[in-house]
Write a structure and sequence with these properties.
Layout: H1 4-14, E1 23-25, H2 27-33, E2 36-41, H3 51-62, E3 71-74, H4 78-89, E4 94-98, H5 104-112, E5 116-119, H6 124-135, E6 140-141, H7 148-164, E7 170-174, H8 179-191, E8 196-202, H9 207-214, H10 237-246, E9 249-253, H11 255-269, H12 275-285, E10 296-301, H13 308-321, E11 325-333, H14 338-348, E12 352-359, E13 369-377, H15 381-393, E14 398-400
Helix pairs in contact: 1-7, 3-4, 3-7, 4-5, 7-8, 8-10, 11-12, 11-13
Length: 401
């Protein structure tokens, strides 16, 4: 078990290296959920996530025993960058095995911190196998989450939360392999045992939830998820032992809920969070937590390393989920002015047209008709209902897409 003494020791090591990240009160979220909601912004940590804490603490702990080949680890992104940067700061050679599907931006970021990137495997588990082979060549292996030193480093997040908000009543924490929630719960439960720790996973890969349900670690299938940083098929052995003892509950969230939470953070708080970092807000926006009336709640925004090419698609998904974009199809008489009349009706109703597709040659269209597909920016569900009602009143038969 990771002790509070070990976490305090990690905090001493990290105090002049890692940032003490802000704990920001959100008036908007507090009013919306009738609670006192705070955001622990680990997306502002070095390398863009909490992973730097555990990586640096681990390297300091083992530095005197390292050989010339340095260290090796496996990661799809955040742990890779954390290890590479920590090793760079200590002039240690680092080799990072990343799955073959790891994003180019995360590969580039890892290399920019001095890491030698090797692409191997179609899953994190296969990348870990390759990393162990490189370990046999004389490199020290650093596990992403199943390691006491890593967990203790991540536990410093919990120390900071209690220091910044002594009255904290609930902390929502993302779970992948379990290192972060294990560290936070070990720290917080030692200092304030009445505080509830709630883990949040993507339903696409809910390994910790399955393990708790079955009473043992199991491997679960992993579907594609925008929360790829917590898509771990089997929760770590050490984290699971701590989770079983100290974590009060684990909930899961769906992909659309994660996208909506990312959009909410970006629009309302100007915070760019990756999918994994947004899952605590996704859980808060869902209905799994029950009443939080007047409670002090902390959402751990664990990282902000969003792939640029995915960001637009994720935000669009969030806009659709929150009824901020609608798509519809209308058949028009193929005569001059028909399209202009339709667009004027929408404009008069304050709908902002984003895209127009005008089809005259569809296989099933009569020659006298055309089909128009529109994508419209709206203010929400009530505005969509208003648009549909006005279009119907003007004689248009609308098919929503």
């Amino acid at each position: 078990m990771v002790t509070i003494a070990k976490i305090n020791q990690a905090a001493e090591i990290l105090k002049d290296v890692a940032f003490e990240t802000p704990l920001v009160y959100s008036d908007y979220l507090s009013r919306k959920f009738d609670a006192r909601v705070h955001l622990k912004l680990e997306n502002l940590q070095k390398t863009g996530s909490f992973k730097f804490r555990g990586a640096y603490h681990k390297l300091v702990t083992i530095r005197k025993d390292l050989g010339a080949k340095g260290v090796v680890t496996a990661s799809a992104g955040n742990h890779a960058q954390g290890v590479a940067h920590a090793a760079q700061l200590m002039s240690i050679s680092s080799t990072i095995v990343m799955p073959e599907w790891a994003s180019i931006s995360k590969q580039t970021a890892t290399r920019s911190y001095g890491g030698q990137v090797i692409l191997a495997g179609q899953s994190l588990e296969e990348s870990l196998d390759q990393a162990h082979k490189l370990e046999a060549e004389g490199r020290a292996f650093i596990h992403p989450y199943d390691d006491e030193d890593i967990i203790a480093g991540q536990g410093t997040v919990g120390l900071e939360i209690v220091s910044q908000l002594p009255e904290v009543e609930k902390i929502l924490v993302p779970i992948g392999g379990g290192g972060l929630i294990a560290g936070i719960s070990a720290a917080v439960k030692s200092l304030r045992p009445q505080t509830s720790i709630i883990g949040v996973q993507t339903a696409s890969c809910a390994s910790a939830a399955a393990a708790l349900r079955l009473g043992k670690r199991v491997t679960v299938p992993a579907k594609h998820s925008i929360a790829d940083g917590i898509s771990v098929k089997k929760v770590g052995q050490l984290p699971f032992a701590i989770i079983r003892k100290l974590v009060d509950s684990v909930v899961t969230v769906e992909e659309e809920e994660i996208a909506a939470a990312m959009l909410e953070l970006l629009e309302r708080k100007k915070i760019l969070a990756e999918g994994s970092g947004a899952v605590p807000l996704a859980a808060l926006m869902g209905d799994q937590l029950g009443s939080l009336r007047r409670q002090s709640v902390v959402l751990v925004i664990s990282g902000g390393n969003v792939d640029t090419h995915l960001l637009g698609r994720i935000l669009r998904k969030g806009l659709f989920k929150t009824s901020r974009i609608m798509r519809l199809s209308v058949q028009l008489w193929d005569v001059p002015g028909a399209l202009a009349d339709l667009l004027k009706v929408i404009a008069d109703c304050r709908g902002n047209i984003l895209h127009v597709f005008h089809d005259r040659l569809g296989r099933h269209l009569p020659v006298e008709l055309s089909r128009v597909e529109l994508e419209i920016e709206t203010r929400g569900l009530n505005h969509i209902e208003e648009l549909l009602s006005v279009l119907s009143d003007n004689g248009y038969e609308v098919e929503t897409l």
